[in-house]
Design brief:
This protein is of the alpha+beta class and 134 residues long. The protein has a single domain, classed as 2-Layer Sandwich (TATA-Binding Protein), CATH 3.30.310. The protein is 21% helix and 32% strand. It contains 3 helices and 10 strands; from the N terminus they run H-E-E-H-E-E-E-E-E-E-E-H-E. The strands form 2 sheets. Strands 1, 2, 3, 4, 5, 6, 9 and 10 form an 8-stranded antiparallel β-sheet that branches. Strand 5 and strand 6 form a beta hairpin.
Length: 134
């Protein structure tokens, strides 16, 4: 019973403050890895090719509305894709050059967030049922 309550408290169908993940359940798993790669690519992410077909990771991508970078990640397990993202603010070194940060933080859902909608767009490309999780 406790495990059931714990599971129910971690996933929700509607967005809640500080959700970190979007879980998309798809009906058709044919070429799911490719579909996830394409979904990230449509939103200016460059996917790392590391031979791991259960996790899609991207290179750091410039944010357009915020001075910083974001790295996308999607874990594929059966017919579910769990999408999450991390961001880092822009760093300028002593020579005035911009650098990718070493400090990354999870992107979370907040009202008027400028970065969360990017995750939503990637999830929408998969045409599945969305759930949210912390």
């Amino acid at each position: 019973m406790f495990a059931l309550l714990l599971f129910c408290s971690c996933k929700s169908f509607g967005q809640e403050y500080l959700d970190k993940k979007i879980i998309v359940t798809v009906d058709d798993t044919t070429g799911l890895y490719q579909k996830v790669r394409i979904a990230f690519g449509k939103h200016d992410y460059q996917v790392k090719e590391d031979g791991n077909y259960s996790v899609v990771t991207t290179f750091a991508r410039d944010l357009k509305k915020t001075p910083g970078y974001t790295i996308g990640r999607a874990e594929i397990l059966g017919n579910t894709v769990t999408i999450s993202d991390r961001y880092g603010l822009l760093r300028i070194d002593d020579w005035g050059r911009t650098r990718v940060t070493n400090e990354w933080k999870d992107i979370v859902y907040m009202k008027n967030s400028k970065i969360w909608p990017l995750l939503e767009k990637v999830a929408d490309e998969l045409n599945g049922k969305k759930q949210y999780s912390k």
